[in-house]
Amino acid sequence: MERSEILLGKYGEEGDRLIFRVLDNGDFMKGVDTSLPSSKIASSISKRAMRYDLTVPFARFVAQHRNDLVFPFKRYQIQPVWRADRPQKGRYQEFYQCDADVIGSESLLHEVEFVQIFDEVFARLGFTSFQVHLNNRKILAGLAEAAGYGDGLGELAIALDKLDKIGPDRVVAEWMERGMPSQAVEVLAPILHEESKRSLEHIRGLIGGTEIGSIGLEEMDDILAQLDSLGLERADVVFDITLARGLDYYTGTIFEVTTDQMAIGSLAGGGRYDDLTATFGLKDMTGVGISFGADRIYDVIEHLGLWPDNLSDAPKVLFVNFGKEEARYAQQWLKSLREAGIACELYPLQSKMKKQMKYADDRGIAYVAMAGSREMEQEVVSLKEMSSGNQQEYGLEALLGLLGIKNP
Amino acid sequence: MERSEILLGKYGEEGDRLIFRVLDNGDFMKGVDTSLPSSKIASSISKRAMRYDLTVPFARFVAQHRNDLVFPFKRYQIQPVWRADRPQKGRYQEFYQCDADVIGSESLLHEVEFVQIFDEVFARLGFTSFQVHLNNRKILAGLAEAAGYGDGLGELAIALDKLDKIGPDRVVAEWMERGMPSQAVEVLAPILHEESKRSLEHIRGLIGGTEIGSIGLEEMDDILAQLDSLGLERADVVFDITLARGLDYYTGTIFEVTTDQMAIGSLAGGGRYDDLTATFGLKDMTGVGISFGADRIYDVIEHLGLWPDNLSDAPKVLFVNFGKEEARYAQQWLKSLREAGIACELYPLQSKMKKQMKYADDRGIAYVAMAGSREMEQEVVSLKEMSSGNQQEYGLEALLGLLGIKNP
Questions:
Q1: Nearest Cβ partner of A230 from B37, B102, B335?
Q2: What residues in A contact B348, CB-CB < 8 Å?
Q3: Can you give the CATH number for the domain in which A358 is found?
Q4: Which among A38, A47, A92, A337 is the top mutation candidate for probing chain B, defined by the most B β-carbons within 10 Å of its own β-carbon?
């Protein structure tokens, strides 16, 4: 939860509309002019709002704690964010973002390392084919300038960002609606097509003469050269001039990761944001960061069946509950096993054997331990290995040995 | 975020007041009767609310997924909750709870294990003196009955819960305001005092004749006997009849953990809740759980200076940045070290040596690696151990060995 003014105005027009606002408590309607439109009333009755992303609250944090931090400052953060979007497959009103950012360094080394992180993370998750799309807001600004539409970056980007959803014709239509001059439309429309949008050389020809465009191209060249010399495990890195990213605060490199194995939109994204902390009073700081969309990544892992086979949250051993006295005996064993770091349980009730064994089975528990009066007397348990059905007696030390505890 | 109706009415009157509600998006005021009081308007303009605790949303989850879960079902969960309380030391509007619950088993074994968890967690965090307070709502119900105020458990508990804050005299005053009969006040007032509130025998004398009270006493005796035979590492377990817990949903054992090393209120709590899932359509299920208040525990750790000395998030090695070519060389080393699981960084800019060394110092980085043209030619780095100032050359394999990687 953040104070509303921290979030509002940072994510563009559409972002503002999608921010969940928190109603003030108590008699919030007191003194409110109810003849105003809802959007105005909202500001009078809600002082708090839910995080829309992790980046803006992070910039607020950095500005607030500037005197306690060592710069360049790096952090990672995994937390939920909320967006009042229409829920659908791959789009949630509450979802987890996993962010990594560096604030206080203009070095392109960070851009390179973030691409390495994308590569390593998705490769480790078992993705066999995924694309890291790269673009640069400065290249887009150069493009707007070269098209004779120098102050039009915002308008250009808002429509461009929807290309995947609405297609090139409707992007062009939206550009015209938003007042893009027709000679600019003429220059820009061709870049929307598959052949040219991936061609850095084509764009270089268009914008090489603009100062901002040249800087953007230099940055892109440097990043691509570094990645080339370092090598990546599995990611395809592709320049894509149509990558715009909706968020207002990006100023340099922008990233987006997709997989051609599932049509679900971007799985991760990010970019460089100069001076985002300035709105919170910390000037002349540049930052760069990335964000993984955990829920969508989960959806893809589910869809592609990438979960490991041996993923289990089950305890290793279940002690059968034969009654009060036997349960006391088992509790002592639980205590020793748990001290050795072994997850184990005593079935909580003296239910029928069949029910207790079914529980062990349903949970995927590897061993079932049984102890009646004979075992208690001999200070052992009868241990049944569920996969083989084999049963054998163990003292505590032998059991710890079996379960891989070397020096109990 | 939950649908409002999931949360409202589950936490008592005060709880409802403290739930943060989320404003609907769009034209939320349309059709709203603005002559109504704020509390009524809230229901028309907010369909969502923020979690007040983790237990009620968990009960909703269990009811919803009943067919996919194996019962007794255990889970732990660490997430933020929100309360519109007046913020003060130890009281936050947003804070993290760490919960563990079991749903679907009436066994008191769980109560015992939760006390063991309290004991282990606080001992491991370095607390030397802490108290696990135990009571049972059934004992409180028996007390109300024995005092001739059989339906008064709710009223009795609401005021009792404030004892630490307002003292015995004002609890008695509030009981009378809430309409407790004077003969009941006469029976109950004496239990508020230090000598008798900890005396299970005193309470046994008062309520032994009531059915509900006897059941509560039996449960308490069983739990205390089990804890006694198992032994605890460091927790003081104390029966406390004045422990009431404000939350409406508890029906059996209730817990609270405090430390006498700092006056900050409870650090953890919990209890048994029969049939909480029934409000979500899953009947005849009992649950029991505990919750750690992470932020308050953090406050105590801070206050008592319990953080470990060697707590560091610093990378192990910083590579000095001597320029473009040297940085490329360092990047290859970073790649190898990171593949071996060693956290390391290249200083991102070619800043003055002094500035780069100061960064290493400020971050508490153990080793600084330097490589100029000579080292690059010989495929080594000059490594400076920051604590001793010693400097020596290492090839990659030797460096991995130094950093504890056995078979690079």
A1: B335
A2: 72, 102, 105, 107, 109-110
A3: 3.40.50.800
A4: A38
Q: Is residue B294 part of a domain?
A: yes
Structure-token pair, residue A57: 């609250």
Judgement on whether residues B211 and B160 belong to the same structural domain of the protein: yes
If one counts every other C-beta atom within 10 angstroms of the C-beta of residue A403, the result is 19
Q: Is the backbone of residue A388 left (phi > 0), alpha (psi -120 to 50) or beta?
A: alpha
Average pLDDT, 10 consecutive residues per value, chain A (408 residues)? 95 90 94 91 95 96 96 96 93 97 97 98 97 96 90 84 89 91 90 86 91 97 96 96 85 97 94 95 96 97 92 91 96 96 96 97 95 97 96 97 79
Chain B from 284 to 313: CB within 8 A of any A CB: none
Number of domains in chain A: 3
For an interface test with B, the pick among A20, A23, A230 (most B C-beta atoms closer than 10 Å) comes out as: A23
Is B335 near chain A, with CB under 8 Å? Answer: yes
Q: Contact at 8 Å (CB) between B369 and B383?
A: yes
In a shared domain, residues A226 and A127: yes
Q: Which residue has the tokens 């002349």?
A: A284
- Per residue in B55-102, pLDDT tens? 999 999 999 999 999 999 999 999 999 999 999 988 999 999 999 999
Which residues in chain A touch residue B327, judged by CB atoms under 8 angstroms apart?
A: 109
Enter the tokens of residue A242. 């149509």
- Same domain for A191 and A149: yes
Predicted pLDDT at B155: 82
* Same domain? B192 vs B300: yes
Residue owning tokens 């760069």:
A288
Q: pTM of the predicted model, to two decimals?
A: 0.92
pLDDT band per the 50, 70, 90 thresholds, residue B407:
low
B25 touches chain A (CB under 8 A): yes
Would an 8 Å CB–CB cutoff place B341 in contact with chain A? no
CA atoms within 13 A on the CB side of A336: 14
Nearest C-alpha of chain B: how many angstroms from A107? 6
A61 reaches B (C-beta below 8 A) = no
Last residue of a domain, which of B276, B304, B332? B304
Cβ within 8 Å, pair B37-A27: yes
**Residues A174 and A196 grouped into a single domain:** yes
- The beta-carbon neighbor of A346 closest among B28, B109, B348 is B109
Q: Do A93 and B1 touch (CB under 8 A)?
A: yes
Query: Within a domain: residue B379?
Result: yes
Q: Are residues A127 and A230 in the same domain?
A: yes
Last residue of a domain, one of B273, B304, B335: B304
**A149 to each of A154, A183, A241, A251, how far by Cα in Å?**
11, 9, 17, 18
Return the higher-pLDDT residue of A319 and B180: A319
The partner residue sitting opposite B105, judged by closest CB among A93, A106, A348, is: A348
Question: Is residue B407, in this structure, part of any structural domain at all?
Answer: no
Do the domain assignments include residue B310? no
Cα angle: A47, vertex A48, A53; to 5 degrees? 140
Contact A51, A2 (CB under 8 A): yes
The alpha carbon of residue B19 is apart from the nearest alpha carbon of chain A, in Å, by: 8
> Is residue A397 domain-shared with residue A345, that is, in the same domain?
yes
User: How much is the ipTM here?
Assistant: 0.90
Query: What b/e string do you get for A110-125 counting C-beta neighbours within 10 Å, with b at 16 or more?
Result: bbbbbbbbbbbbbeeb
Contact yes or no for B346 and A26 at CB 8 A: no
Q: Judge contact between B393 and B330, C-beta under 8 A.
A: no
Instruction: List chain B residues with CB under 8 Å of A48.
Output: 20
Report how far residue B351's alpha carbon sits from residue B373's, in angstroms, rounded to the nearest whole number.
Answer: 18
CATH label of the domain that carries residue B275: 3.30.930.10
How many Cβ pairs closer than 8 A exist between chain A and B? 110
Task: With CA atoms as reference, report the closest residue to A121 among A221, A270, A288.
Answer: A270
Residue A78 touches partner B, C-beta closer than 8 Å: no
Domain that holds residue B93: 53-304
Residue B243 sits in the same domain as residue B261: yes
